[in-house]
Amino acid sequence: MKQTLNSSQQPTIAVIGCGYVGLTTAALFAACGLKVYAVEINPERLKAIQSGRSFFYEAGIQQLLKAGLDNGTLVPTSDYELAIPPADFVISCVGTPDNDDGSANLSYVFGAAEQAARLMKSGAVYVQKSTVPVGTGAAVQSTLTGIPNPISYVSNPEFLRESSAINDALWPDRVVTGGTDIAAADAVLNLYRHIERNRDKLATLCELVPPKTTPDIRYVTTSLASAELIKVSSNAFLALKISFANSIAKLADQAGADVTEVMAVVGGDSRIGKEFLNAGRGYGGGCFPKDVSGLIRSAEDHGVDMEIMRAVEAVNESMPHYAINKAMLAHGSSLAGSRIAVLGLAFKAGTSDTRRSPGITIANTLQSMGATVKAYDPQAMDESDELHSHIVRSASLEEAVQEAEIVFVTTDWPHFQNRDLYQLAHAHGVGLVVDCMNCLNPDDWNNGVRYIGIGR
Ligand code: UGA
């Protein structure tokens, strides 16, 4: 039986770039019953999508893809000529990798806009979902003057987190659009009401549990520049909270306090909030590191010294080394020659993504220091190309832990937090557990296995 969720006449969408954001967006709208052309130029990724497989791990994405493909609403293609002309909305989700100086590389952003705009029908809306520095929209708009058909440009930043992307899309705190054409910005907001209307069915399809309290979705339209700045400011502020917690963690280590106790109470102040105050090996992933450095460079272009964000970046970069130094002190000597297991290569739990993963930095640094390193992750082994070749890639938790003298927990996978790790560490005579995520209970560790966390 086809899983059509919404059968009335609907707008047609083309999504350009099927990475984490693009594929999630395309699959969600298609599962709502909207016709979505998902444009992907990487042949391997396209083949995977066409056969109903996501190239990354994300809870619910496979079910959405299957629903869209079965319905015939999701059309994966590499062909702009097929996808763009019928689209009422063209949503750009192309990558914005960082340049060597930390600034955002916008060649895909401009390239996609130029390629699509000449094929777009009159009155269609070009929606920018890629995270771009403030001012990019105005620059893209000016390159689009002179194309045959008049089209509108709308910024529509996304706030999805990897590992809870579909939950975040079904129950967002806010949906933001910005542009000079207010009607077009409103039309883009209205697109998201399809997701809100269908969310119970989508949640059932994806086997997702609704949050305990359902947020009142705020649909917000701002100026183009504000919408762009909202996105990077949100990520920068979250990164700032993490680096703040990590600075306090360093002090807690010196002063004999426990940063997890401190932040639990500090975050209990509703003006501050509990989220993103977990100290540890620092933030990674495809967003925070890039967005923080991008904000610093973009501010420089506007003559503004973003000194607070430079400090955020410096604290973050210090954290993997800080964790290793703590382990060295606890071990009582250099780690050269030690047998070490590094558990967690994904940049956070719930994803297979290893971009800028602190776990990989820690594993590689330990190996460069002369340690014998085994690494393991329940989802990210296939994406861990950046691991040094001398590091042994373990097939299981047990294989990684056996023979290890020291275990570093670098991703807070639930798998590492249950009794398995505790039992394995005891069974195999591990001497030291370094909890780089503060995700284990220190009181659980005794009888011969020493525990250290970050700031506790
Ligand atoms: C982040 C934002 O949270 C999303 O709102 C945004 O849409 C997304 O970037 C984006 O720009 O596309 P994401 O990178 O998927 O999402 O991951 P987060 O859950 O924010 O975690 C980022 C990093 O911070 C991870 O390495 C995580 O382990 C670390 N972290 C997070 C901490 O070290 N401490 C914390 O308290 C929270």
Keywords:
single chain; 456 residues; alpha/beta; six-stranded parallel sheet; disordered N terminus
Enumerate the strands of the largest sheet in spatial order, edge to edge or round the barrel.
3-2-1-4-5-6
Principal-axis shape equals globular
Query: Hey, roughly how much beta strand do the residues contain?
Result: 5-15%
Total strand segments: 14
Enumerate how many helices there are, as a single number: 17
Give an overview of the whole structure:
With 456 residues, this protein is an alpha/beta fold. 42% of the residues lie in helices and 13% in strands. Strand 9 (339-343), helix 14 and strand 10 (372-376) form a beta-alpha-beta unit. It is globular and about 70 Å long. Mean pLDDT is 94; it is low at 1-7. The protein binds uridine-5'-diphosphate-glucuronic acid (UGA).
Record the SSE blueprint:
Layout: E1 12-16, H1 20-31, E2 35-39, H2 43-50, H3 61-71, E3 74-77, H4 80-83, E4 89-92, H5 107-117, E5 125-128, H6 136-143, E6 152-155, H7 165-170, E7 174-178, H8 182-197, H9 199-206, E8 218-222, H10 224-255, H11 259-266, H12 288-301, H13 307-331, E9 339-343, H14 358-368, E10 372-376, E11 392-393, H15 397-401, E12 406-409, H16 414-417, H17 419-427, E13 432-435, E14 450-452
Parallel strand pairs: 1-2, 1-4, 2-3, 4-5, 5-6, 7-8, 9-10, 9-12, 10-11, 12-13, 13-14
Helix pairs in contact: 1-3, 10-12, 10-13, 12-13, 13-14
Bound molecules: uridine-5'-diphosphate-glucuronic acid.
Briefly say what this structure is.
With 456 residues, the chain is of the alpha/beta class. The protein has helices spanning 20-31, 43-50, 61-71, 80-83, 107-117, 136-143, 165-170, 182-197, 199-206, 224-255, 259-266, 288-301, 307-331, 358-368, 397-401, 414-417, 419-427; strands at 12-16, 35-39, 74-77, 89-92, 125-128, 152-155, 174-178, 218-222, 339-343, 372-376, 392-393, 406-409, 432-435, 450-452.
